Every structure is written in C-alpha cells, then in structure tokens.
Amino acid sequence: MRHHPSELFIKSLIVNSKTDSEIESILDEYGLPPIDEDSVDYLPDLRKSMGPIPKGDLSQVSDTYLRDQQIYFLIHTDSVVAACTRILDNQAVKRDVYVSILGRVSADDLSMHLLDMYGVDVSPETVRAFKHYYFNIDKLSSDDWATILPQLPGSDPTYYESAMNGGATVGAYRVGREVNVSIRDAVKEAVTGLYVSLQEIRHWSGSPVR
Known about the structure:
With 210 residues, the protein is mainly α. The protein has helices spanning 7-15, 20-30, 42-50, 63-68, 72-75, 79-82, 85-88, 91-102, 107-118, 124-133, 142-148, 158-166, 168-174, 183-202. It is globular and about 60 Å long. It has a domain at 181-210.
C-alpha cells in the first residue's frame, strides 16, 4: 500500500465520515499534497486498513481506537495541534515548512524562522505536531515522493528534492536562514564531492578521464 504525508489527517477525516471526494476537497482547501490520480485504490485501502468504525456521533468512537490509529489529538484537539491551523492558513508559510521538514531542519529552528520571517508564532511542539499529522515524511518511499514533490507549492520539484538530499543545511538555506558553516568544512565537503564525481566519471564507458 502506498502512503501519503497527510495520512493521519486523512484518517481523522475518515473517522469524521467524510467521503472520498470531500477528503480530496479538504486537502486542496488546506494546501496539502493531493492524492495522486493514479492511486485510485489509496483511500479504499486505507479505509480497509482502519477496520470497522462506529457510525454516528464521534463520542461512539473509543479512545483506544483513536490512539491505535494515532489520531486521538486530531479528534480531541489540544492547543498544540489546534495551532497547526496557523501553518495551514498561509501558502508561503507552508512552502517553507515543507522544505524545512524535507531537509530535516530542527523544530526549534523552524519555529524561530516562522516567527522571524512571517510573524507566525508556533511552538516547536506545534511544528512537530504538524510534521506528525499533516506532513509526515517518515513512512514514504521514493516512489511516493516521485508523485508528491511536483504537486507541492511552486512549480519546480527540485526545490524540495535538493533539501531532501542535502539535509538541514540546504533546507535552512532554501528558506533564507543563516547557515553557519566554517570555511574549512565547506572546502572539505566541496573537495569530497568533486572527488566522488570524478570517480563516477572514471567509470563511465568511453570516459576520456579513464
């Protein structure tokens, strides 16, 4: 089964008795990654994996079930999770959050960036909650990302891909944060990268470097 970065949020919508079309509409409204058109079985498979859900009022859904599905605080929202709406409400903020999470920028640094750049005051705990419920990158495969990256805000998926591959330093640079890297470390990394590239070229068939 393929996965989606907003999978836990989608599960909460299923528990709230939303139809497939309603779920897709809500993802679009919140600026979250859409469900790929080729993944027609994704929602039916996800519903099946969740097992039977009591129909009717949410009070009929047991706390144990919600915790097993990892969505308890999406149904019984606390102040930390409720503050995620401050991220969802702003497209530019979401873009910075997405690229920072992909680059694994720390929650503390991202929280500070959002306050400095946009005046959006969200705690590191809320950043972690957003990553957990709305943009969880830990379960996705390379095939999943191949369809998701081109659908994130902005037209160039390499903007996000470079952060995924380059880590926190690239992620911080992409959103305009000061990157504290010593000249020695920068030169060492550049030389290492050049050496690896040369070794790759040497093994190409017909390469004049050989």
